[in-house]
Amino acid sequence: MIAFLRFLLLTGRWFALLGVGVIALFLLAAVCAPLFFSWEEATRVNLGDALAAPSAALPLGADEMGRSMVARLVWGARVSLLVAGLSVGVALIAGLVIGGLCGFYENRLTFVTMRAMDAIISFPRILVAIMLITILGPGIVSLTLAIAISSVPVFARLFRGPVLSLKKRDYVVAARSLGAGDGRLLFRHVMPNLTALIVVQGSISLAEAVLIASGLSFLGLGPQPPVPEWGAMIAQSRSHLMSTPHVVLAPGIALFVFVLALNLVGDGLRDFSDPRASGTGGR
Amino acid sequence: MTRQTGTLSLDRRALLGGAAGALLAPGVRAQRANDVLTFIEGSDFDTLDPAISRTRSAEILFYVMFNRLVRWTDTSLSAIGPDLAESWTISDDKLTWTFRLREGVRFHDGTAADAEAVKFCIDRLRDPAFGSPNRSLYTAITAVTVVDPRTIRFTTEQPHAGLLENLAESSASISSPTAIRRHGRNYGRNPVGSGPYKLEEWAPGERTVLTRAVPSARFRQIIYRPVPEGEARLIELEAGTADIATGIPPEATARVRANPRLKLEVIPSSFQVFFELNCARPPFNDVRVRRAIQFAVDREAIVQRILGGFGTVPDSFVAPGVQSYEPIGKHPYDPDRAKREIAAVFPGGFPEKIVMWTSSGRYLKDQQVAEAVQGYLNAIGLQTEFRAWEWASYQQTLYRRTPNVPGTGYGTNAAHMWVLGTSIPTADWRLSRRYQTGQSANILGYSDPRVDDLLNRARVTLDPAARLDLYHQANRLLWQDNPPNIPLYNQSQIIAMQRGISNFNAFAFEIPLLGEVSKS
Question: What residue intervals traverse the membrane (chain A) (predicted)?
Answer without folding.
Answer: 12-37, 79-104, 194-221, 247-266
